[in-house]
Design goal:
CATH architecture of the largest domain: 3-Layer(aba) Sandwich
Shape: globular
Radius of gyration: 37 Å
CATH superfamily of the largest domain: P-loop containing nucleotide triphosphate hydrolases
Number of strands: 28
Distance between the termini: 74 Å
Helix content: 40-55%
CATH class of the largest domain: Alpha Beta
CATH topology of the largest domain: Rossmann fold
Strand content: 15-25%
Number of helices: 33
Length: 853
């Protein structure tokens, strides 16, 4: 179409193109005869000016205008004008849609000269992509756009593998436009896009995780099983089925002519059938919003099929529209046995071929979806058998027999697997209550209420004891959770000030609930540093001279045992001299020709003359002073002088405590409540661990619930969840300067489920951990002390509403879901990074006159 328009413009022929489809003719129609009047006006205008009518979906003209009682449509209105040659129409259609036109309007179909346009392959699509890049570059304001060759290769590969329901080159061009709508990396006026940008755009389109798209390491069955078991409790058969579907897609072994998988979940009510479908949507497609759910008890009449697929006059069915909008999804048909038999007939095509036809004859591709059907067939009979739920093989055989008896063979044969669900045991309910608690703590009122909630595990055990009923599964448990936890939390939030930050602990007291509240306040500032703008160059120079004098005094003492401390003093003195001579002088340096180099010498050095041995003479350069402003000197020197001052105080502090020997301090970093492993890792890595014979010990939880301590750097499998970290540090005078690193870290999470804050506790262990073998003994003593403290709060012996200090604040250090070393945490009392707080604390301790604010 673009080429046709350009050719006419070159020939000086004015012939506009009108692009329409059937929906535009009937859009906004309210009265009988309204679309006819609109079509009449369009035809009249086209005939008068001889413009071209372009229809991008020919079949839409056949269905536009139809109602339940009226078969008249837009195509019938245009047909006689086209037959007389009064209109020139260019139309697009897929082969399937054109067959519908032949069936519904054979006369209209016969008026067109049909030109078959085959889809391109991936190789032939590459020139089209390059042309699109040039077009987008011409449309935008950027000087140029660059895509790496690997980015184009990745784009074509991903579209070929995952977007089978569309054709090249269109699907590749559409993804390319999404990629280039992103920010990219700008360098020298050029926006550059890499394969990572393509992966990000594809992830947004499909929801597929990185390990499926290929930008991360493939996941093993064990890791996926562990991940699903954390979301689906007590249903090993369901976990196995879901993991199989994910591994099939990861290995690119999914069927090409049907949905990715079709499962029938059968079992009692409240055992997690719907939750399993949600877990599959979260794991495979990135979130529960990718779950399309239909309650089949609403489709019990013969006419209800039109709600799913649409009808002439209202062609947009709920199922077809949802799949057209988002083909990468989980489709859940809940209680499928309650639907009308006509619904089963319609689903045969869906389950068998992975496609549906809506009321307008449009084909919807469903091959990128996972279909889950749930049913209670056979549950009543199963409940009459004593011990039935303990025999997995017997349960599977029973449910399979019930399903075969209910569904017709052609429907049953389209199911990939019948998955039996077991009645929930108390152990499985314990997992369910953990998941429900996580959902409760993520509610808006708690996230925005300045309250951090921690629930004692014994209280959750009480909920399971009170709510366990194998007949109703997890539903009574969720009601008990609302009554026991949600309502007390709501009462607390109403009574407290919204500005106060508090840690709320919910404890079990017999068969009742006790609430313990700990107010959290920022640690008071110690000798706060003036902002950089408040310093003058003279003050910085004076501070440098004071620090140099202190260094000279310390070096003159000649302490024989100083050793490494004496070397550090010498290095600090050299740095002080360097700052004085190069930062606090009003000049910088540049290379300039020496006066000894005459003009003649400089000219001959670039001429064809050669000197002795054939070498050209070269000019001689020297450094000449160049004036630098006071502001620039201050900007350069101030941070170096302050750091030098604090490091000098730290060495002086160590010299003072030299006779005491090396201090060994172990800081325990432990997440509270719903703190994530990455939050614990962020806090642990922010500590000044590189001191003396330092070590880091980590406690992690295996998939089966076992805990294990190991030393940082040891190889471990991926199916571990970090629980807490013990950081062992050793240095002279360490005990005093580590005192400010005791309290709570308030960490802002940066996950995609919305902002929230979690607490991480930092405590100094009373016993030394000399090696990994010492860790279990020391931590057992610590855990016993924690239990005693909790019992005191439970009995009311501990002071209510006691205030505790938040010593660290900041964001979770995460990139692409993995913790990294460049933490965003700040030490509240000093305003510095935690690693820099030691020298600061040493200076404050050496200058008590500055005191506390």
């Amino acid at each position: 179409m673009s080429r046709l328009t350009a050719r006419q413009d070159a020939a000086g022929v004015r012939r506009d193109v009108w692009r329409v489809d059937g929906n535009q003719f009937i859009a906004g129609m309210m009265y009988v005869g309204q679309w006819e009047a609109r079509a009449r006006g369009v035809v009249k205008e086209l005939m008068e000016v001889s413009d071209l009518l372009y229809v991008d979906d020919l079949a839409s003209l056949v269905y536009a205008g139809r109602t339940r009682n009226e078969r008249t449509n837009v195509a019938q209105f245009l047909e006689p004008h086209m037959a007389r040659g009064e209109l020139t129409v260019l139309a697009e259609s897929t082969p399937e849609r054109f067959e519908r036109v032949r069936e519904e309007a054979p006369t209209l179909a016969s008026l067109f000269r049909v030109i078959h346009v085959p889809a391109l392959d991936a190789r032939a699509t590459l020139p089209a992509l390059l042309g699109t890049v040039r077009e987008l570059e011409a449309e935008g304001t950027d000087s140029s756009v660059r895509l790496s060759p690997l980015a184009l290769e990745t784009l074509l590969s991903l579209q070929e593998r995952f977007v089978s329901h569309e054709a090249f080159p269109g699907k590749a061009v559409r993804l390319l436009r999404r990629v280039m709508a992103r920010q990219g990396v700008s360098t020298s006026g050029t926006r550059r896009f890499s394969s990572g940008d393509v992966i990000d755009a594809m992830r947004e389109q499909t929801g597929l995780p990185d390990f499926i798209l290929g930008s991360a390491q493939p996941k093993k069955r064990e890791a996926l099983t562990w991940e699903m078991q954390r979301q689906v409790a007590g249903q090993p058969e369901a976990v196995e089925a879901v993991v199989d579907a994910i591994l099939t897609l990861q290995s690119a072994l999914q069927p090409s002519d049907k949905p990715l998988a079709t499962y029938l979940f059968v079992g009692p009510t409240g055992v997690g059938k719907t939750e399993t479908a949600k877990a599959l949507a979260r794991t495979l497609f990135g979130g529960e919003q990718r779950l399309i759910r239909f309650d089949m008890s609403e489709f019990v009449t013969s006419s209800s099929i039109t709600w799913l697929l649409g009808r002439p006059g209202a062609p947009d069915g709920e199922l077809t529209t949802a799949l057209r909008t988002q083909p990468f999804c989980v489709v859940l048909f809940d209680e499928v046995e309650k639907a009308h038999p006509r619904v089963f007939d319609a689903l045969l095509q869906f389950l068998g071929e992975g496609r549906l036809t809506d009321g307008a004859g449009r084909t919807v591709d469903a091959r990128q979806s996972v279909v889950v059907l749930t049913s209670n067939l056979g549950v009543r009979e199963a409940a009459t058998h004593t011990g039935f739920h303990r025999a997995a093989d017997s349960a599977e055989a029973h449910y399979l027999s019930a399903v075969r008896a209910w569904f017709r063979p052609e429907f049953f044969n389209r199911l990939d697997r019948v998955v039996p669900f077991r009645p929930l045991t108390p152990a499985a309910l314990r997992v369910v209550v953990d998941l429900a608690l996580e959902a409760l703590l993520s509610r808006h009122g708690i996230r925005q209420g300045n309250v951090l909630v921690e629930v004692e595990p014994r209280l959750l055990d009480l909920l399971v004891e009170e709510a366990y009923d194998p007949r109703y599964g997890a539903r009574p448990l969720k009601r008990a959770l609302e009554k026991r936890l949600t309502l007390p939390l709501a009462h607390h939030l109403v009574r407290r000030s919204a500005d106060d930050l508090a840690r709320v602990e919910l404890l079990r007291d017999g068969n009742d609930l006790r609430v313990s509240v700990e107010v959290l306040v920022n640690a008071p500032a110690w000798a706060p540093e003036r902002p950089a703008s408040a310093w003058s160059l003279a003050e910085v120079s004076r501070l440098l001279e004071e620090t140099r004098s202190r260094l000279e005094a310390l070096m003159s003492k000649e302490v024989p045992e100083a050793g490494e401390l004496a070397e550090r003093l010498h290095r600090l003195a050299l740095e002080a001299t360097d700052i004085r001579d190069y930062e606090l002088v009003p000049r910088d340096f540049q290379d300039a020709p020496s006066p000894a180099s005459t003009v003649k010498q400089m000219l001959t050095s670039h001429s064809s003359h050669v000197g002795h041995l054939g070498l050209r003479q070269r000019p001689v350069y020297e450094e000449r002073p160049l004036h630098v402003s006071n502001e620039e000197q201050l900007r350069r020197a101030q941070p170096r002088v302050l750091a030098l001052r604090d490091e000098t105080a730290w060495v002086e502090h160590q010299l003072t405590h030299l006779a005491r020997g090396t201090d060994v301090v172990t800081v325990l970093v432990e997440g509270l409540g719903d703190a994530t492993p990455s939050a614990v890792w962020t806090v642990a890595h922010s500590l000044p661990s590189a001191l003396g014979e330092s070590a880091m010990y980590l406690e992690a939880v295996h998939a089966d619930g076992r805990t294990e301590w190991f030393q940082s750097g040891d190889e471990r499998s991926e199916d571990l969840t970090l629980r807490r970290v013990a950081v062992r540090m050793s240095a002279i005078g360490l005990r005093e300067v580590l005192a400010p690193l005791r309290g709570y870290a308030l960490v802002d999470l940066v996950h995609g489920d919305g902002p929230r804050q979690v607490l991480v506790r930092l405590e100094h262990l009373s016993e030394d951990i000399g090696s990994l073998e010492d860790v279990p003994r020391v931590m057992a003593a610590w855990d016993e002390a924690v239990v005693r403290e909790r019992d005191a709060r439970r009995s009311g012996a501990a002071s209510a509403g006691a205030a505790s200090h938040v010593i660290l604040r900041g964001r979770e250090g995460v990139t692409t879901g993995r913790p990294h070393d460049s933490t965003e945490l700040t030490h509240v009392a000093s305003g510095r990074r935690p690693r820099e707080a030691l020298a600061w604390a040493a200076r404050v301790l050496r200058e008590p006159s500055q005191g506390h604010d």
